[in-house]
Structure formats: C-alpha cells, structure tokens
Design a protein that fits this description.
The protein is of the alpha/beta class and 228 residues long. It is built from seven helices and nine strands; from the N terminus they run βαβαβαβαβαβαβββα. It has a five-stranded parallel beta sheet with strand order 2-1-3-4-5, with helices on both faces. A four-stranded mixed beta sheet has the order 7-6-8-9, with helices on one face. Strand 4, helix 4 and strand 5 form a beta-alpha-beta unit.
Amino acid sequence: MKIVLIGYGAMGRLIGRLALNAGHELAEPIDDADANRSSRELAAKLSGSDVAIDFTTADAVRRNVEACVVAGVPLVEGTTGWNAERDAIEQMVAEHDGAFVFGANFSIGVNLFYRLTDYAADLFARFDNYEVFIEEQHHSRKKDAPSGTALKLKEIVERHIDGDFSVSATRAGNIPGTHRVGFDGPADQVLLEHTARTREGFAAGALLAASWIVVKRDSTSLPTSWTR
C-alpha cells in the first residue's frame, strides 16, 4: 500500500515509521512547504498513492479533503475540531464519489472505551442519584478543547442520560491524552479512565483504518462513498 502523509509533524513521522516497518511504501509527504498550495495543486502531488492520512490542523481539513477527492485518493482524517464544516465536507465527498473515513480517535483502546462508556451510561441512567461528568487532559500544543474524543464520549452518554453535565479540558506539558467518564453518587463514585502512554496507539489505528478503506473502496460489493 502506497501511503501519502498529509502533515509531517510528530504524528506524521510516527505513522511513517510504523508504515515502513509494516512493509508499506511512503509517497512524498504533504508538509509545511505545501501550506499555500491550492487543492488542485495538492491533488497532483497526491496522484498515484493508494491512500492518504491527514494529521494537520482543523483549518486545513476542507482543502485536504477536496484535494483527495479530486485526486481519487481515499482519505483517513485524524484531525479534529472541524465539525462545523462536516456537512459541507460530506457533500463534497459524496459529489465526487470519494472515500473518506474519520474518527475522533483512531486508538483501538479508545474505541473499546467508547463501548464501555455506552454500557456504563445505560446502567447509570436507571439511577437518578448519580451524576455524570467527563474530564480530558492533553499536551499544551493541542488546540481544540474539549477534544474530539471527549465530545464523542459526551455524545455516547447523551444517548442514555438527559440534561447538562460537565465536560472539562486541561492543556499542559506533554500529556499524550487522558479521558475520564465519572458517575458520582452520594455514597460513592465510579470512574472509567483511558490513558494513552504514547501516540503509537493513534498511529497504529490510523494505519488500520487506511488498510480498511482501501479494501472497502476497491470492493464492488461495498459501493458507499461516505464512510465513518
């Protein structure tokens, strides 16, 4: 699989290393030198790759998606903070019959954590004397707050529990990422927590998503152009 990395910061370099170790090929990355290029110009650079993986900034996502659909290259979107443009991006992908997969967090552990949260929220919804809260911590370089993962956890909890509840965010130091979902009652507290030790979990999950979307795009039995 030939992968083009959009964004070659810490995450991009880590994904690149894991990709090479897994026997994949890397195209020339899209990096800071390409920041002022149009989507059409980027599309030419993307051409010939099997899949693109984007870990850049929220304000670059729309251009990057457009470049990928013009080039006919499936895209794994790891950037968060662009939900306000989701409808327009979804329409763009559909109109170009593109292939696009995104997630608040590609870590396998976090996706299992989502399921645990869903189950716990369903249980605690039956007891009015427990109140829910969500906390997250990340490194000081992360711009969006609360994180996309915290917002996804909120969405999951809201399937079962009505009313407002606290979602707090901390930005400090070099924290890879910690998320907590708590259920606090008068006599006790139940706390679910996921702590990322390194960013390798995110990178490995993004590569897994890239392999999945390439197979899905190439399958004649799965014609869907918009995937999540």
